[in-house]
Amino acid sequence: MKLQQAIDRVPLLGSLESRYFFSAPFIGLVVFLCYLTWLSSATTPVVKGPVAGYRSFLEPTFLVRLRFVFNAVGIMNSGYHKFKNTSFIVRRMDTDLTILAPKYLEELRKSGLDALNATHANIHNVLGDYTNLTEMKHNDHFIKAITHCLNPNINEFMKHIQDEVNYSFKVDMPKFEGDEWKSVDIHILLKRIISRVSCRIMLGFPYCRNETMVEITESHTICIFGVTLILRRFPPILHPLVALLIPQRWRMWRNIRETKKMTQDILDDYKVMKASGEARPKTLLTWMVDNAKPHQESLHSLVSTQLAVTVAAVYTSSQVTSHLLVFLATKPQYIAELRQEIAETNSDMENIDHSKLQKMEACLSETLRINPPQTNSPQRRAMREIKLRDGVIIPKGALVAFPATPLSMDPAIYQDPTQFMPFRKENLSVPATTPGKSKLAFGWGVQACPGRFFATKEIKVVTAKLLMKYDIELAPESSSIRRCYDIEDLRILNPSIRLRMRLRGSNTE
Ligand code: HEM
Q1: Is residue 443 in contact with ligand 1, taking CB distance under 6 Å?
Q2: In this predicted complex, what is the ipTM?
Q3: Cα radius of gyration rounded to whole Å, the chain
Q4: Which atom from ligand 1 is nearest to the alpha carbon of 117?
Q5: Which pathway or pathways does this protein act in (predicted)?
Q6: Would you tell me which CATH number, out of the four given (2.120.10.30, 3.40.50.620, 1.10.10.60, 1.10.630.10), belongs to the domain 133-379+415-503?
C-alpha cells in the first residue's frame, strides 16, 4: 500500500498499475540501472590526471570499464602515447587505477612497504577476503621464505629441481614411438612440470610426489583467478552472495582442506625427525616452521603462506615458458643456436648448467618483454599520502601501476618492438632478472619479484631439456589462430595453441 502511494506521487509512474513494478522486466531494468550506476562510479582515490580510454566525450563510463576487460592493453597504450610523461587513470570494472608516468620509476625505486605496498595491491586485486589471501597483509613469511631460504641456497636447491624436472619428463611426457609427431597441449604439460618443481622446493622429497598435492599446486592459481575475475564484475555488496556460487571457490576451499591434511602429516614427520636428530630436508616449509613468529605458527597460517607462494610461482613461470616455446617453435633459426649453446656448455642433460646459457637467457628476456604475465606492472597500494618531488600527490588508498607493456613495446625504446628478436644488445648484456625502466616483467625496486632468480633458472633448465630431447614446431591448426589474450591486465597464451613434438634422433627425413 505504501509503495503504491509513493509511486502515485511520481508524475509519470503514477499512471502505471502496481503489478508492472513487480514484473520481471521492470525488476530487471531496475537491477540493470543499479549495475550501470555502480559501474559508472569511481571507487578508489586516484592521482590527479587525465583519464585514458574514452573514444569520445559522449562515451559513458560504464562502457569504458567494460571495454577495459578485453582491451586493457589498447587503452593503456593509448594513454601512454597520448599523455607521455604524465600520469593517467584507467577505469577497471572494480576500481580506478592510476598509471604513473615512467619518470617516477627512479624516485619510487626504494619506496617501502609503509608507503607503496605491492602485497596490499595484489591482495586488493585478487579480492583477498574471498581468496584466503588477506592474511598475507600481516604475514610476510611467503616473501621471506624465498629471500631467506631459497635465494641464498639456490645452487643446493637446483640439484633437487633438476631431479624433479627429470622425473617429470619420465612420467608426464606423452609416449612417442619412433619418429612420429604428436600434438601436445603445451600449457598442461608445462603447468605439470612447474607444479612438480614448486612442490619439491616447498615440501621436499618424497612429499612432492604426492599426486594430489601436485594437482592442488597446478589448479590453485586458476581457482584464485576464476574467483577474482568473476567477483570483479559485481559490486562489493553482492560479493558475499556471488562468492558462494562460484565453483572455483568451492575447489579453492577443497584445495585448502586437502593441503592442511597433507601439511599436518608432513609436520608430524618433521617432529619425529627432529626428535630423533635425523636431518630434515631443506625446504621452504621447514624454513617457515623453524622461523615462524607466534602468529605464523598455526596450520592455517602455514598453509595460506604455502599457497600464496604457489599463486605467485606456478602460473607466471608456466605461462612464460609456454610463450617462450611458442616463439621458438615459430622461429626455428633460434632453436638451432640454442641447441648449439646447450651442447657446447653441457655434457650431462640430466644436470644442466643453466649459468652458461646466455643466449637462452636472452630468449627468455625477449619473451618477458613481449609477453609479461601481467601487462601493467608493478602495482602498488598507497599506504599513506605520498608527495612526489614535483608536488604530485598520491592519495592514501590509491592503486597505482607503471605501464609495463606500453614501455616494452615502445618503438622509441625498442626497434621493431613486436618482433621476437632475442639477441638484442639489451637482452645479451643485462641478465633477465635485472629490472630496467622499460623492463618491468619482474616488477621494480626493492619489492621486485623475489622468486625471479629461481624462476629464470627453472625455465632455462626445462626449456634446454625440451629442446635437446624433442623437435618442436607449431601445430598447423595453431598457426593461424590468435597467440594470446588479455583479460584486464593478465596476458594468457591462447589455450587452443598446440605444439607438435617428436623425439630427436629418430628423425628419418
Ligand atoms: C617468470 C616467472 C615470474 C614472473 C614474470 C613474476 C613476476 C612477478 C611480479 C611482476 C611481481 C610483482 C613485483 C613488484 O611489485 O615489483 C612478483 C612478485 C612476487 N613473486 Fe614473482 N614472478 C615469477 C615467478 C615467481 C616465482 C617462481 C616465485 C616463487 C618462487 C615468485 C614469487 C613472488 C612473490 C612471493 C612475490 C611477492 C608478491 C607480493 O608482494 O604480494 N615469483 N612476481
Answers
A1: yes
A2: 0.99
A3: 25
A4: 40
A5: Mycotoxin biosynthesis
A6: 1.10.630.10
